[in-house]
Amino acid sequence: MSTGPTPTHHRSRTATFAAAAVLAVAAPLAAAGPAVADPNFPSTEGETNTASIASYDDLVAELQRLEDTARFGVDVQTLAEVGTAVSTSESGRDLYVATVGEGPEAVWLQGRIHGNEPYGTESLLAVLKELGTNGSPDWTLLRDTYTFHVIPMYNPDGSELNIRHTILQDGSNSRIDLNRDWGVGKFAAAESEAFYEYWTMVDPAFAVDIHHQGLKREYGTGDDVTLSLGISLAPGGPTLPGVEGGAYDVLTRQMHVHVYDELAKYGYVNMDRYQVGGSLEIDIKGGVVSAMMLGLDHDGLNPEGHSNPAIFFETSGNTSDGSLGQKARGKSIKQNVVALQELLTGMATGEVQQEDPARWDEIPHAPVTGYQTDTGVIPVP
């Protein structure tokens, strides 16, 4: 793997694809009519078998294979090779990033910040394979427009333990949610320090974070939801309208409107908006993508106040509640890959920026009663 120099801002691109995921997404994706989700997607039959989930060793091996076989210059590095001050996980595992593309703007793609949410890793490995090998016009456009920085396994320790958190190795054995650890007075975990510094090196134009949620049904219809579309600082909420003059409040909604329209063509995908507590929009500031939008300056590493819009996807099913859905594994990965491809292509062509942000309200959701913040619920006025 490369031991090249620290990446310069907006000059290297990453995307990742796992060997198992290749088979899951290799077949052409047939468009269908209005989405009607498979009622067994994901399946709750049987217990979750983690043997088929990509391990840390699987990740390292697949990244090496992709770097060796890519037609278009996939560059795999550890953060130690990049040169961040902190470069390993709490347990000492190397933290990996992959870059691909020659475009002037950087894009940040991350997955598995929660260790029990595995398909982010495989989805990003699948996207990386396409970026590294696919010579079609769409993928060529993406490589020419952007430099991708892909982090397929943000939380290797939690992934190996199949838990949401990482565990501090300072003698306390404290469990830290890495997606609540980018904030003033936080950064308790080594992974947070490492990837934050890398973010300040990259200065991405935008970011996407891939998650899982538990099983969910659509408000009003009771249909199974396969994918929820999320923004961690609620559009129109207490925070986002005041960021960058409201620009991210608009663009993040446009991004998801575009994804919603494009994925509605696929019959196995049924989408809604991500909410918690039945009817609350999230407005948390300690999440990684929230801190990106807020332009967090930690330890003087972001004095210029770089910020970027960011969204997340939530695939239904996770290993914690035994609802991962082995039988729908290929579909779970594929919907993330298609969502990313449609979003990235739409951003590159400018289609996303032409979407009507007000149509965010058309994406199925429960009537909003309040905002879940880091310190409690703020009711809707």
TrEMBL record:
The record's annotation in PROSITE patterns points to: PEPTIDASE_M14
Q: Name one Pfam family in it.
A: Peptidase_M14
A single GO molecular-function term is: zinc ion binding
Q: Which GO terms describe its biological process?
A: proteolysis
InterPro entries named among the record's database cross-references: Peptidase_M14
What sequence ranges are listed for the domain Peptidase M14? Answer: 52-381
GO CC terms in record: extracellular space
Q: Which cofactor does it need?
A: Zn(2+)
Q: Where in the cell is it found?
A: Secreted
Superkingdom to which the source organism belongs = Bacteria
Q: What is this protein called?
A: Tat (Twin-arginine translocation) pathway signal sequence
